[in-house]
Amino acid sequence: MDYQAPWWLPGGNLQTIWSALCARPSQGVPIAYRRERWTTPDGDFVDADWLDAPDAPPLGAHTPLLVVFHGLEGSSRSHYALAFADLARTRGMRLVVPHFRGCSGEMNLAPRAYHSGDHEEIGWILARLRAQHTGPLWAVGVSLGGNALMQWAAQAGDMAARSVDAAACVCSPLDLAAGGAAIGRGFNRQVYTRMFLRTMKPKALSKLAQHPGLFDAQALRAVRDLYDFDNLFTAPLHGFRDADDYYARASARPHLHRIRVPALVLHAVNDPFVPASSLPRVGEVGPCVTLWQPPQGGHVGFPRGGLPGDVRCMPEAVVGWLAAQRSTTA
Asked: Other CB atoms closer than 10 Å to residue 188's CB: what's the count?
């Protein structure tokens, strides 16, 4: 990816924060979605938002379907989801954003939520979408969603090609321990950690109200960083011994060599959430994996242009790469 950050947004933090708070679709037209609710195998539900464009083509053999998996506490209204939707609208593609449980605006039912290694949920969603779509199907996972997507691709091996034609992860903490340590220090702790916990703690307490006895409410209220939150809530609710066990078993980086579908792994080297030292190297990944590591971009930022700028650069590059795999793998 040939990316140059605008002069007025120097540094990973500014590129991250401006993109999340100020970015708008470059066409200036609001994005509309149509929601579907799917019943999961365990009797819970997943809400999926489909791009609702008046001239959207039908699902079929010649229409690409782009599936966007959001990041921690994200949704179909996250800036990157809107940017992908804006691009899909202008390119005549179909797009759907499945929400991880508890992220669609309504609390899910089961005594669980979502986590960075939720590859079984990813697999179920992609298989469901493939069953109704015969054309190109491309999956993009952003941040947490990207780690889960790469975990699924690695675990599925050759079987992944039955569901997707190509996949990409964007700014994903593929080494969860390294990412957790980075977000728990200094500026990151004061700004990003507080931002995430502002929504994560109330959701966890709502889950406790649904299922009394899941964890200690007083201990949850006292949590001040993501490690402690994961140790108390995320790990035990999803079958991990503790946060360290969760980070070790859910991290996708050690498994990238097992991926057997075309996969793009994109990170900005100055991402404040993902230390450069934790990024995968060429010798660690298999021949199906392409690494893009531009020096600038921040965490899911990649803003471009003069003021006020936009964030279409990354979606354009990622979708361009995904589309190119259609010809190389045909």
From this structure: 19
Question: In this structure, what token pair is assigned to residue 17?
Answer: 């924060």
Amino acid at position 139, single letter: A
78 has a pLDDT exceeding 70: yes
Q: What are the catalytic residues?
A: 143, 271, 299
- Residue 108: how many CB atoms within 10 A of its CB? 22
Cross-strand bridge partners of residue 47: 37
What pLDDT sits at residue 275?
A: 97
CA 77 centroid distance within chain: 13
CA distances from 80 to 89, 119, 122 (A): 14, 21, 19
Domain annotation for the chain: domains and CATH numbers: 12-175+252-328 (3.40.50.1820), 176-250 (no CATH)
3-class DSSP state for residue 127?
A: helix
Closest CA to 267 of 185, 175, 139: 175
How confident is the model over 253-276, as pLDDT tens digits? 999 999 999 999 999 999 999 999
Sheet holding 45-51, edge to edge: 33-39, 45-51, 94-98, 65-69, 137-142, 166-170, 263-266, 289-292
Q: What is the spatial distance between Cα 195 and Cα 191, in angstroms, rounded to a whole number?
A: 6
Torsion angle of alpha carbons 224, 227, 228, 232, nearest 10°? 140
What's the predicted TM-score (pTM) here?
0.96
Residues found in the chain = 330
Nearest CA among 254, 40, 69, 268 for reference residue 149: 69
